[in-house]
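User: Okay, second chain of the day. Same drill as before: sequence in, C-alpha coordinates out.
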Amino acid sequence: MRIIINEIKKIFNIKMILLMIVGVLILYKLYASFEIEYFPNGRPDGDTYRITIEMLNKYGTSMDEDEFKDLKIWREEKEIEADKYLSSREEFTSLNIDTYKKFQEKDHEEIHELSNKIFFKEGVDVFWELQGMDSLIGLYEHKDSVIDKSQKKALENRELEIIEKESNESILTNIIFDNYNNFIGGFALIILFSIIFMLCLIFIKDRVNKVEYLQYTSFVGRGLFKKKIIAGVISSLLLTTLFIAIAFKLYAGNNTSMFYNCNINGFYNHTFWYDLTFYQYIVITVVLTYILSVITALITMYLSSMATSYIKVIAMIVPIGGSLVYLGYNSIITKGMFVYVSQFKTPIIYAVLIISTCILIVKKLRRTKRVDILY
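Assistant: Same drill. C-alpha coordinates below.
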Protein backbone atom coordinates (compact mmCIF):
# COMPACT_ATOMS: atom_id res chain seq x y z
CA MET A 1 0.00 0.00 0.00
CA ARG A 2 2.89 2.34 0.76
CA ILE A 3 4.19 1.95 -2.80
CA ILE A 4 0.74 2.74 -4.23
CA ILE A 5 0.45 5.89 -2.09
CA ASN A 6 3.92 7.00 -3.20
CA GLU A 7 2.95 6.44 -6.85
CA ILE A 8 -0.19 8.54 -6.36
CA LYS A 9 1.96 11.31 -4.87
CA LYS A 10 4.23 11.13 -7.91
CA ILE A 11 1.22 11.45 -10.22
CA PHE A 12 -0.08 14.50 -8.37
CA ASN A 13 3.14 16.50 -8.35
CA ILE A 14 2.82 20.29 -8.16
CA LYS A 15 4.09 21.00 -11.68
CA MET A 16 1.61 18.61 -13.31
CA ILE A 17 -1.26 19.88 -11.16
CA LEU A 18 -0.59 23.51 -12.11
CA LEU A 19 -0.38 22.67 -15.81
CA MET A 20 -3.56 20.60 -15.54
CA ILE A 21 -5.41 23.50 -13.89
CA VAL A 22 -4.46 25.81 -16.76
CA GLY A 23 -5.74 23.28 -19.30
CA VAL A 24 -8.94 22.67 -17.31
CA LEU A 25 -9.73 26.39 -17.09
CA ILE A 26 -9.30 26.77 -20.85
CA LEU A 27 -11.51 23.76 -21.58
CA TYR A 28 -14.13 24.90 -19.06
CA LYS A 29 -14.33 28.29 -20.75
CA LEU A 30 -14.63 26.68 -24.19
CA TYR A 31 -16.99 23.78 -23.49
CA ALA A 32 -18.92 24.20 -20.22
CA SER A 33 -19.06 27.77 -18.88
CA PHE A 34 -21.69 28.94 -21.39
CA GLU A 35 -24.27 26.52 -19.95
CA ILE A 36 -23.84 28.09 -16.50
CA GLU A 37 -23.37 31.75 -17.39
CA TYR A 38 -26.20 31.94 -19.93
CA PHE A 39 -28.97 29.72 -18.62
CA PRO A 40 -31.68 30.09 -19.63
CA ASN A 41 -30.25 31.42 -22.88
CA GLY A 42 -32.13 34.55 -23.93
CA ARG A 43 -35.78 34.95 -24.79
CA PRO A 44 -38.23 33.29 -25.17
CA ASP A 45 -36.26 30.38 -23.61
CA GLY A 46 -36.08 32.21 -20.30
CA ASP A 47 -39.82 32.89 -20.38
CA THR A 48 -40.59 29.27 -21.32
CA TYR A 49 -38.40 28.12 -18.42
CA ARG A 50 -40.34 30.30 -15.95
CA ILE A 51 -43.68 29.20 -17.41
CA THR A 52 -42.78 25.51 -17.05
CA ILE A 53 -41.84 26.10 -13.40
CA GLU A 54 -45.33 27.56 -12.84
CA MET A 55 -46.82 24.61 -14.76
CA LEU A 56 -44.87 22.22 -12.53
CA ASN A 57 -46.28 23.90 -9.43
CA LYS A 58 -49.84 23.80 -10.82
CA TYR A 59 -49.96 20.46 -12.64
CA GLY A 60 -47.11 18.36 -11.26
CA THR A 61 -44.49 16.60 -13.38
CA SER A 62 -46.86 15.98 -16.30
CA MET A 63 -49.84 17.71 -17.92
CA ASP A 64 -53.02 15.83 -18.88
CA GLU A 65 -55.78 17.04 -21.20
CA ASP A 66 -57.75 18.86 -18.47
CA GLU A 67 -54.62 20.66 -17.32
CA PHE A 68 -53.85 21.49 -20.94
CA LYS A 69 -57.23 23.22 -21.18
CA ASP A 70 -56.24 25.26 -18.13
CA LEU A 71 -52.97 26.20 -19.84
CA LYS A 72 -54.92 27.48 -22.84
CA ILE A 73 -57.14 29.57 -20.54
CA TRP A 74 -53.98 30.95 -18.94
CA ARG A 75 -52.71 31.76 -22.41
CA GLU A 76 -55.97 33.58 -23.25
CA GLU A 77 -55.53 35.71 -20.12
CA LYS A 78 -52.05 36.65 -21.33
CA GLU A 79 -53.49 37.56 -24.73
CA ILE A 80 -56.04 39.86 -23.06
CA GLU A 81 -53.13 41.52 -21.25
CA ALA A 82 -51.36 42.00 -24.60
CA ASP A 83 -54.58 43.42 -26.11
CA LYS A 84 -54.76 46.02 -23.36
CA TYR A 85 -51.14 46.97 -23.94
CA LEU A 86 -51.62 47.42 -27.70
CA SER A 87 -54.91 49.32 -27.40
CA SER A 88 -53.26 51.77 -25.00
CA ARG A 89 -50.44 52.62 -27.42
CA GLU A 90 -51.22 55.26 -30.06
CA GLU A 91 -48.53 54.03 -32.49
CA PHE A 92 -50.44 50.72 -32.74
CA THR A 93 -54.03 52.02 -32.72
CA SER A 94 -53.14 54.46 -35.50
CA LEU A 95 -52.37 51.40 -37.65
CA ASN A 96 -55.64 49.72 -36.57
CA ILE A 97 -53.78 47.27 -34.35
CA ASP A 98 -55.55 47.02 -31.02
CA THR A 99 -55.42 43.25 -30.43
CA TYR A 100 -52.69 40.64 -30.31
CA LYS A 101 -54.24 38.72 -33.23
CA LYS A 102 -54.13 41.79 -35.45
CA PHE A 103 -50.55 42.38 -34.32
CA GLN A 104 -49.61 38.88 -35.51
CA GLU A 105 -51.49 39.21 -38.81
CA LYS A 106 -49.97 42.51 -39.91
CA ASP A 107 -46.82 42.26 -41.99
CA HIS A 108 -45.16 45.42 -43.23
CA GLU A 109 -42.04 47.42 -42.42
CA GLU A 110 -43.64 49.76 -39.88
CA ILE A 111 -45.00 46.82 -37.88
CA HIS A 112 -41.56 45.19 -37.91
CA GLU A 113 -40.07 48.33 -36.39
CA LEU A 114 -42.75 48.46 -33.68
CA SER A 115 -42.33 44.73 -33.05
CA ASN A 116 -38.58 45.16 -32.55
CA LYS A 117 -39.36 47.99 -30.14
CA ILE A 118 -41.72 45.80 -28.07
CA PHE A 119 -39.52 42.72 -28.03
CA PHE A 120 -35.97 44.03 -27.96
CA LYS A 121 -35.95 47.66 -26.82
CA GLU A 122 -38.70 47.58 -24.21
CA GLY A 123 -38.67 43.82 -23.59
CA VAL A 124 -42.40 43.64 -22.77
CA ASP A 125 -42.77 40.34 -20.87
CA VAL A 126 -46.27 39.38 -21.99
CA PHE A 127 -45.29 39.17 -25.68
CA TRP A 128 -42.35 36.90 -24.93
CA GLU A 129 -44.53 34.79 -22.62
CA LEU A 130 -47.13 34.37 -25.36
CA GLN A 131 -44.42 33.08 -27.71
CA GLY A 132 -43.32 30.56 -25.10
CA MET A 133 -46.89 29.46 -24.40
CA ASP A 134 -47.67 29.11 -28.11
CA SER A 135 -44.67 26.80 -28.50
CA LEU A 136 -45.78 24.68 -25.53
CA ILE A 137 -49.37 24.49 -26.77
CA GLY A 138 -48.38 23.69 -30.36
CA LEU A 139 -46.04 20.87 -29.32
CA TYR A 140 -48.54 19.41 -26.86
CA GLU A 141 -51.27 19.33 -29.51
CA HIS A 142 -49.00 17.18 -31.71
CA LYS A 143 -47.49 15.06 -28.93
CA ASP A 144 -49.27 11.89 -30.12
CA SER A 145 -47.99 12.17 -33.69
CA VAL A 146 -45.51 9.55 -34.87
CA ILE A 147 -42.74 11.61 -36.44
CA ASP A 148 -42.07 9.57 -39.59
CA LYS A 149 -44.06 6.56 -40.75
CA SER A 150 -41.20 5.50 -43.05
CA GLN A 151 -38.70 5.16 -40.20
CA LYS A 152 -37.47 1.87 -38.77
CA LYS A 153 -40.12 -0.28 -37.11
CA ALA A 154 -38.30 -0.26 -33.77
CA LEU A 155 -38.41 3.55 -33.66
CA GLU A 156 -42.09 3.66 -34.58
CA ASN A 157 -42.87 1.04 -31.92
CA ARG A 158 -40.98 3.07 -29.34
CA GLU A 159 -42.90 6.23 -30.19
CA LEU A 160 -46.20 4.35 -29.99
CA GLU A 161 -45.12 2.90 -26.63
CA ILE A 162 -44.40 6.42 -25.30
CA ILE A 163 -47.84 7.58 -26.47
CA GLU A 164 -49.52 4.56 -24.84
CA LYS A 165 -47.74 5.14 -21.52
CA GLU A 166 -48.43 8.90 -21.73
CA SER A 167 -44.75 9.55 -21.03
CA ASN A 168 -44.92 12.39 -23.54
CA GLU A 169 -47.05 14.43 -21.13
CA SER A 170 -43.93 15.26 -19.12
CA ILE A 171 -43.29 18.97 -18.55
CA LEU A 172 -39.50 18.67 -18.90
CA THR A 173 -38.34 20.79 -21.86
CA ASN A 174 -35.32 20.46 -24.13
CA ILE A 175 -34.21 23.87 -22.81
CA ILE A 176 -33.40 22.23 -19.47
CA PHE A 177 -32.35 18.85 -20.85
CA ASP A 178 -29.97 20.19 -23.53
CA ASN A 179 -28.45 22.57 -21.01
CA TYR A 180 -27.55 19.66 -18.71
CA ASN A 181 -26.45 17.43 -21.58
CA ASN A 182 -24.11 20.04 -23.04
CA PHE A 183 -22.76 20.86 -19.58
CA ILE A 184 -22.02 17.29 -18.51
CA GLY A 185 -20.54 16.58 -21.94
CA GLY A 186 -18.17 19.51 -21.46
CA PHE A 187 -17.16 18.28 -18.02
CA ALA A 188 -16.66 14.73 -19.34
CA LEU A 189 -14.20 16.21 -21.82
CA ILE A 190 -12.42 18.03 -18.97
CA ILE A 191 -12.26 14.87 -16.85
CA LEU A 192 -10.86 12.69 -19.65
CA PHE A 193 -8.30 15.33 -20.63
CA SER A 194 -7.14 15.61 -17.00
CA ILE A 195 -6.74 11.84 -16.65
CA ILE A 196 -4.79 11.51 -19.90
CA PHE A 197 -2.56 14.46 -19.00
CA MET A 198 -1.81 13.29 -15.44
CA LEU A 199 -1.16 9.63 -16.33
CA CYS A 200 0.59 9.84 -19.70
CA LEU A 201 4.08 9.88 -18.11
CA ILE A 202 3.48 7.27 -15.41
CA PHE A 203 5.66 4.59 -17.10
CA ILE A 204 7.66 6.44 -19.71
CA LYS A 205 9.74 8.25 -17.07
CA ASP A 206 11.06 4.95 -15.72
CA ARG A 207 11.78 3.61 -19.21
CA VAL A 208 13.61 6.75 -20.39
CA ASN A 209 15.69 6.81 -17.19
CA LYS A 210 16.47 3.04 -17.53
CA VAL A 211 14.90 2.36 -14.13
CA GLU A 212 12.88 -0.54 -15.59
CA TYR A 213 15.99 -2.70 -15.82
CA LEU A 214 16.64 -2.29 -12.11
CA GLN A 215 13.02 -3.07 -11.29
CA TYR A 216 13.08 -6.36 -13.19
CA THR A 217 15.98 -7.66 -11.07
CA SER A 218 13.71 -8.19 -8.05
CA PHE A 219 10.35 -9.78 -7.34
CA VAL A 220 9.03 -6.53 -5.83
CA GLY A 221 10.20 -4.56 -8.86
CA ARG A 222 8.36 -6.84 -11.27
CA GLY A 223 5.18 -6.23 -9.27
CA LEU A 224 5.57 -2.47 -9.61
CA PHE A 225 3.64 -2.40 -12.90
CA LYS A 226 0.53 -3.72 -11.16
CA LYS A 227 0.90 -1.22 -8.31
CA LYS A 228 1.31 1.65 -10.78
CA ILE A 229 -1.86 0.52 -12.55
CA ILE A 230 -3.75 0.50 -9.23
CA ALA A 231 -2.36 3.93 -8.36
CA GLY A 232 -3.40 5.25 -11.77
CA VAL A 233 -6.94 3.90 -11.44
CA ILE A 234 -7.29 5.38 -7.95
CA SER A 235 -5.96 8.71 -9.25
CA SER A 236 -8.46 8.67 -12.13
CA LEU A 237 -11.31 8.02 -9.69
CA LEU A 238 -10.12 10.87 -7.46
CA LEU A 239 -9.96 13.26 -10.42
CA THR A 240 -13.37 12.17 -11.67
CA THR A 241 -14.95 12.58 -8.23
CA LEU A 242 -13.37 16.00 -7.79
CA PHE A 243 -14.58 17.32 -11.14
CA ILE A 244 -18.03 15.74 -10.81
CA ALA A 245 -18.40 17.47 -7.43
CA ILE A 246 -17.32 20.80 -8.95
CA ALA A 247 -19.65 20.28 -11.92
CA PHE A 248 -22.75 19.70 -9.80
CA LYS A 249 -21.86 22.52 -7.45
CA LEU A 250 -21.88 24.82 -10.48
CA TYR A 251 -24.94 23.17 -12.04
CA ALA A 252 -26.97 23.62 -8.84
CA GLY A 253 -27.02 27.35 -9.64
CA ASN A 254 -29.17 26.65 -12.72
CA ASN A 255 -32.06 25.75 -10.40
CA THR A 256 -33.47 22.75 -12.25
CA SER A 257 -33.87 20.31 -9.34
CA MET A 258 -37.68 20.70 -9.38
CA PHE A 259 -37.68 18.85 -12.72
CA TYR A 260 -35.74 15.82 -11.44
CA ASN A 261 -38.88 13.64 -11.20
CA CYS A 262 -40.07 14.47 -14.74
CA ASN A 263 -39.88 11.81 -17.44
CA ILE A 264 -37.25 12.68 -20.05
CA ASN A 265 -39.67 11.76 -22.89
CA GLY A 266 -41.62 15.02 -22.76
CA PHE A 267 -43.70 16.67 -25.49
CA TYR A 268 -41.15 19.52 -25.49
CA ASN A 269 -38.09 17.27 -25.37
CA HIS A 270 -36.29 14.60 -27.40
CA THR A 271 -37.40 10.97 -27.64
CA PHE A 272 -35.40 8.23 -25.88
CA TRP A 273 -35.21 4.45 -25.83
CA TYR A 274 -35.88 4.30 -22.10
CA ASP A 275 -38.45 5.74 -19.68
CA LEU A 276 -36.30 7.50 -17.12
CA THR A 277 -36.77 10.45 -14.84
CA PHE A 278 -34.42 13.37 -15.33
CA TYR A 279 -32.68 12.45 -12.06
CA GLN A 280 -32.16 8.84 -13.18
CA TYR A 281 -30.72 10.11 -16.46
CA ILE A 282 -28.27 12.33 -14.55
CA VAL A 283 -27.16 9.37 -12.40
CA ILE A 284 -26.60 7.21 -15.50
CA THR A 285 -24.47 9.89 -17.20
CA VAL A 286 -22.34 10.14 -14.05
CA VAL A 287 -21.88 6.35 -13.91
CA LEU A 288 -20.96 6.26 -17.61
CA THR A 289 -18.44 9.04 -17.00
CA TYR A 290 -16.80 7.05 -14.19
CA ILE A 291 -16.58 3.92 -16.36
CA LEU A 292 -15.09 5.82 -19.29
CA SER A 293 -12.65 7.54 -16.91
CA VAL A 294 -11.26 4.20 -15.71
CA ILE A 295 -11.05 2.90 -19.29
CA THR A 296 -9.22 6.07 -20.35
CA ALA A 297 -6.82 5.74 -17.41
CA LEU A 298 -5.99 2.12 -18.26
CA ILE A 299 -5.47 2.82 -21.97
CA THR A 300 -3.30 5.86 -21.20
CA MET A 301 -1.12 3.84 -18.81
CA TYR A 302 -0.84 0.97 -21.28
CA LEU A 303 0.34 3.32 -24.03
CA SER A 304 2.77 4.96 -21.60
CA SER A 305 4.23 1.53 -20.80
CA MET A 306 4.66 0.69 -24.50
CA ALA A 307 6.35 3.92 -25.62
CA THR A 308 10.15 4.22 -25.65
CA SER A 309 10.39 8.02 -25.66
CA TYR A 310 8.37 11.11 -24.76
CA ILE A 311 7.75 11.87 -28.43
CA LYS A 312 6.38 8.38 -29.04
CA VAL A 313 4.08 8.48 -26.02
CA ILE A 314 2.62 11.77 -27.25
CA ALA A 315 2.24 10.38 -30.77
CA MET A 316 0.41 7.33 -29.42
CA ILE A 317 -1.78 9.03 -26.82
CA VAL A 318 -2.96 12.08 -28.78
CA PRO A 319 -5.00 10.21 -31.46
CA ILE A 320 -6.28 7.46 -29.17
CA GLY A 321 -6.94 9.79 -26.25
CA GLY A 322 -8.57 12.27 -28.60
CA SER A 323 -10.89 9.55 -29.88
CA LEU A 324 -11.91 8.63 -26.33
CA VAL A 325 -12.55 12.27 -25.47
CA TYR A 326 -14.63 12.68 -28.63
CA LEU A 327 -16.66 9.58 -27.79
CA GLY A 328 -17.31 10.88 -24.28
CA TYR A 329 -18.17 14.42 -25.33
CA ASN A 330 -20.19 13.75 -28.48
CA SER A 331 -21.56 10.25 -28.26
CA ILE A 332 -21.66 7.56 -25.62
CA ILE A 333 -22.23 9.71 -22.52
CA THR A 334 -24.65 12.37 -23.76
CA LYS A 335 -26.37 10.90 -26.84
CA GLY A 336 -26.42 7.14 -26.35
CA MET A 337 -30.11 6.95 -25.35
CA PHE A 338 -31.62 9.04 -28.15
CA VAL A 339 -33.91 7.05 -30.47
CA TYR A 340 -32.02 8.24 -33.54
CA VAL A 341 -28.95 6.39 -32.19
CA SER A 342 -28.98 2.58 -32.28
CA GLN A 343 -30.21 1.19 -28.97
CA PHE A 344 -27.20 -1.14 -28.83
CA LYS A 345 -24.49 1.32 -29.89
CA THR A 346 -23.51 2.56 -26.42
CA PRO A 347 -23.55 -0.87 -24.68
CA ILE A 348 -21.49 -2.37 -27.54
CA ILE A 349 -18.92 0.45 -27.48
CA TYR A 350 -18.54 0.17 -23.70
CA ALA A 351 -18.30 -3.63 -23.87
CA VAL A 352 -15.62 -3.47 -26.59
CA LEU A 353 -13.64 -0.84 -24.67
CA ILE A 354 -13.85 -2.72 -21.36
CA ILE A 355 -12.95 -6.13 -22.82
CA SER A 356 -10.14 -4.89 -25.06
CA THR A 357 -8.65 -2.75 -22.28
CA CYS A 358 -8.74 -5.63 -19.80
CA ILE A 359 -7.07 -7.95 -22.34
CA LEU A 360 -4.27 -5.44 -22.99
CA ILE A 361 -3.60 -4.86 -19.28
CA VAL A 362 -3.70 -8.57 -18.37
CA LYS A 363 -1.30 -9.44 -21.22
CA LYS A 364 1.04 -6.67 -20.11
CA LEU A 365 0.92 -7.87 -16.49
CA ARG A 366 1.82 -11.41 -17.53
CA ARG A 367 4.60 -10.14 -19.75
CA THR A 368 6.22 -8.15 -16.93
CA LYS A 369 6.37 -11.30 -14.81
CA ARG A 370 8.34 -13.30 -17.37
CA VAL A 371 10.18 -10.69 -19.44
CA ASP A 372 13.95 -11.17 -19.54
CA ILE A 373 16.09 -8.48 -17.93
CA LEU A 374 17.97 -7.99 -21.22
CA TYR A 375 14.75 -7.40 -23.20
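Residues 2-39+171-370 form one domain.

User: Thanks, on to the next one.
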